[in-house]
């Protein structure tokens, strides 16, 4: 393709609102343009990358017998009302009415749509298992779209769904999809980790995320420095094991109440008592969607993990309670709360580290008052079902598998797979007759890849101070031909011959036929980041060109007669190194 005919509006200055590297480079190199907040146009270079990513996805989906199809982006609201998500999904849903005053949404995901289709058309276990997928735009009304393609209101996604008649079928589908995702991301050439994830609003049980380490990532990846363990921060666990006889080794001291008017935080209380925060407890009040208060107790050196709390309670979300509600119910403000003497209607949850403390200090549920020498059993009844891991893991903790210590890094979620179970099939009546002739709910899985987000994630990882550095497998073009002066007959002839021979070899070639200075051409070539640049200059008449490998900036001269074979080898080497 001739560069003069390519719509590639590069920029010399980075827009002020482009905060992260991928946003800056994709704008500057002419890959994307904003249309409105959180919605982008994908210009020709970006579309070629997206096409490559989608082709890899389709090939790997075909390899596991997943069926591609397409459903509407506009969905009837009643479908989501039946699953319960119309009310619980929140303000992220785009909602509107048609001319008949019927409620609709723009689909952010399609569990309900596919479940309804299977409920209507699959009636026997003999038709299962099946896997289906689509590649389509999705919509979420983000309150604060930012970071370019990393947090948008419209995005391109591959969403897939599996339907099975039993748990074994779901497990097999989940494993197939995980294996396919590993192959997809390996082929694309992005660095990633497979981590334990939270199902969140999707529901279901097992969940794994595919996260690309990057400074611009909004997720925190927690991983062991000596094993394969990795999880997102909301799900990460350390290796702590609850003690079975914590109180047997110490004498229980007498409960005391003391004045602590200036100790409203753990740091202030630890300073006042000259005590290690790990020997103190903090009590956080959360409120459920049913407006019930729950007191969550952790040791003072850890933070309450809201995701672990909501998963334990079985709610899609819990929130920090309003201080006014807490004061009205408990009789004390934040900073003076504790587990002793809570009203019966306040549920108590205790982190396992806190449950092992003896003679600890806690808020007295009276403003400006704390209790010393609090003990479980004697001062607060505590059952095993109230105790679990409710804390957020810390960097340096021993990994849950006992191998190495936990380390933190930022990451971008590029894929997520869930075992949904029967959450949607039960709600929407998707049943089949089993081998005994009884109706049974289909067991589902849901599997997503953020295709447009991948564009940004690759740009975050594969770039330098000159511009983008696309992996060979997804680059918009494989080879960039840059003649210095097309008015020179030798250069024009060599350029035309190379374009023809490389194209005949199956390679996509971009020819910079613009009437620009060499410096401008080289700067643009580095900016758009194609894997191989061939410069046709003064030695063209001698049958010699200069080859530059973008990833390493290595340059060497090459005989024109060697170009075809050598370029193929260089591209294969880059793909093997991905």
TrEMBL record:
<dbReference type="InterPro" id="IPR023717">
    <property type="entry name" value="Pro-tRNA-Synthase_IIa_type1"/>
</dbReference>
<dbReference type="GO" id="GO:0004827">
    <property type="term" value="F:proline-tRNA ligase activity"/>
</dbReference>
<dbReference type="InterPro" id="IPR045864">
    <property type="entry name" value="aa-tRNA-synth_II/BPL/LPL"/>
</dbReference>
<keyword id="KW-0648">Protein biosynthesis</keyword>
<dbReference type="Pfam" id="PF04073">
    <property type="entry name" value="tRNA_edit"/>
</dbReference>
<keyword id="KW-0436">Ligase</keyword>
<dbReference type="InterPro" id="IPR002314">
    <property type="entry name" value="aa-tRNA-synt_IIb"/>
</dbReference>
<dbReference type="InterPro" id="IPR006195">
    <property type="entry name" value="aa-tRNA-synth_II"/>
</dbReference>
<dbReference type="Pfam" id="PF00587">
    <property type="entry name" value="tRNA-synt_2b"/>
</dbReference>
<keyword id="KW-0963">Cytoplasm</keyword>
<keyword id="KW-0067">ATP-binding</keyword>
<keyword id="KW-0030">Aminoacyl-tRNA synthetase</keyword>
<dbReference type="InterPro" id="IPR004154">
    <property type="entry name" value="Anticodon-bd"/>
</dbReference>
<dbReference type="InterPro" id="IPR033730">
    <property type="entry name" value="ProRS_core_prok"/>
</dbReference>
<dbReference type="InterPro" id="IPR036621">
    <property type="entry name" value="Anticodon-bd_dom_sf"/>
</dbReference>
<keyword id="KW-0547">Nucleotide-binding</keyword>
<dbReference type="InterPro" id="IPR002316">
    <property type="entry name" value="Pro-tRNA-ligase_IIa"/>
</dbReference>
<comment type="function">
    <text>Catalyzes the attachment of proline to tRNA(Pro) in a two-step reaction: proline is first activated by ATP to form Pro-AMP and then transferred to the acceptor end of tRNA(Pro). As ProRS can inadvertently accommodate and process non-cognate amino acids such as alanine and cysteine, to avoid such errors it has two additional distinct editing activities against alanine. One activity is designated as 'pretransfer' editing and involves the tRNA(Pro)-independent hydrolysis of activated Ala-AMP.</text>
</comment>
<dbReference type="InterPro" id="IPR044140">
    <property type="entry name" value="ProRS_anticodon_short"/>
</dbReference>
<feature type="domain" description="Aminoacyl-transfer RNA synthetases class-II family profile">
    <location>
        <begin position="48"/>
        <end position="471"/>
    </location>
</feature>
<comment type="similarity">
    <text>Belongs to the class-II aminoacyl-tRNA synthetase family. ProS type 1 subfamily.</text>
</comment>
<comment type="subunit">
    <text>Homodimer.</text>
</comment>
<dbReference type="InterPro" id="IPR036754">
    <property type="entry name" value="YbaK/aa-tRNA-synt-asso_dom_sf"/>
</dbReference>
<dbReference type="InterPro" id="IPR004500">
    <property type="entry name" value="Pro-tRNA-synth_IIa_bac-type"/>
</dbReference>
<protein>
    <recommendedName>
        <fullName>Proline--tRNA ligase</fullName>
        <ecNumber>6.1.1.15</ecNumber>
    </recommendedName>
</protein>
<dbReference type="InterPro" id="IPR050062">
    <property type="entry name" value="Pro-tRNA_synthetase"/>
</dbReference>
<dbReference type="Pfam" id="PF03129">
    <property type="entry name" value="HGTP_anticodon"/>
</dbReference>
<dbReference type="InterPro" id="IPR007214">
    <property type="entry name" value="YbaK/aa-tRNA-synth-assoc-dom"/>
</dbReference>
């Amino acid at each position: 393709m001739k560069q003069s005919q390519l719509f590639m509006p590069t920029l010399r200055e980075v827009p002020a609102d482009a905060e992260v590297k991928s946003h800056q480079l994709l704008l500057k190199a002419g890959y994307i343009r904003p249309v409105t907040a959180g919605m982008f146009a994908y210009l020709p270079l970006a579309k070629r990358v997206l096409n490559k990513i989608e082709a890899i996805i389709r090939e790997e989906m075909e390899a596991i017998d997943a069926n591609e199809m397409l459903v509407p982006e506009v969905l009837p609201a009643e479908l989501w009302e039946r699953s319960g998500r119309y009310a619980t999904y929140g303000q992220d849903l785009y909602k509107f009415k048609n001319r008949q005053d019927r409620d609709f949404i723009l689909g952010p995901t399609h569990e309900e749509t596919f479940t309804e289709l299977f409920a209507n058309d699959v009636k026997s276990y003999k038709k299962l298992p099946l896997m289906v997928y689509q590649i389509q735009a999705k919509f979420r009304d983000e309150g604060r779209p930012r970071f370019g393609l990393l947090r948008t209101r419209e995005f391109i996604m591959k969403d897939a769904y599996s339907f099975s008649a039993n748990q074994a079928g779901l497990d097999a589908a989940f494993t197939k999809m995980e294996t396919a995702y590993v192959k997809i991301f390996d082929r694309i050439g992005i660095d990633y980790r497979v981590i334990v994830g939270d199902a969140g609003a999707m529901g279901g049980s097992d969940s794994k995320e595919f996260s690309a380490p990057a400074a611009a990532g909004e997720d925190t990846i927690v991983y062991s420095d000596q094993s394969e363990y990795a999880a997102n921060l909301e799900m990460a666990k350390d290796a702590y094991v609850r003690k079975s006889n914590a109180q047997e080794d110490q004498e229980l001291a007498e409960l005391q109440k003391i004045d602590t008017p200036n100790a409203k935080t753990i740091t202030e209380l630890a300073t006042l008592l000259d005590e290690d925060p790990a020997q103190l407890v903090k009590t956080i009040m959360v409120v459920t969607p049913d407006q019930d208060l729950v007191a969550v107790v952790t040791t003072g050196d850890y933070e309450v993990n809201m995701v672990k709390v909501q998963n334990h309670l079985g709610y899609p979300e819990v929130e920090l309670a309003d201080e006014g509600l807490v004061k009205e119910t408990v009789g004390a403000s934040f900073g003076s709360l504790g587990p002793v003497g809570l009203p019966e209607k306040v549920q108590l949850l205790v982190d396992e580290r806190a449950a092992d403390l003896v003679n600890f200090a806690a808020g007295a549920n009276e403003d400006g008052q704390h209790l010393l020498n609090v003990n479980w059993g004697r001062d607060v009844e505590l059952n095993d079902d109230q105790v679990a891991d409710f804390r957020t893991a810390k960097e340096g903790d021993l990994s849950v598998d006992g191998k190495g210590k936990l380390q933190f890094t930022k990451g971008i979620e590029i894929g997520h797979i869930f075992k949904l179970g029967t959450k949607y099939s039960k709600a929407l009546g998707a049943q089949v007759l089993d081998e005994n002739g009884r109706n049974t709910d289909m067991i589902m899985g849901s599997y997503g890849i953020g295709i447009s987000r991948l564009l940004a994630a690759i740009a975050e990882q594969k770039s330098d101070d000159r511009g983008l550095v696309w992996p060979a497998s997804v680059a918009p073009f494989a080879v960039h031909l840059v003649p210095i002066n097309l008015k020179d007959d030798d250069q024009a002839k060599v350029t035309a011959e190379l374009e023809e021979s490389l194209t005949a070899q199956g390679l996509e070639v971009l020819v910079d036929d613009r009437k620009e200075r060499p410096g401008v051409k080289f700067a643009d070539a580095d900016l758009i980041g194609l894997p191989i640049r061939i410069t046709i200059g003064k030695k063209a008449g001698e049958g010699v060109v200069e080859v530059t490998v973008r990833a390493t900036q290595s340059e060497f001269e090459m005989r024109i007669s060697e170009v075809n074979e050598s370029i193929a080898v260089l591209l294969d080497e880059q793909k093997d190194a991905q």
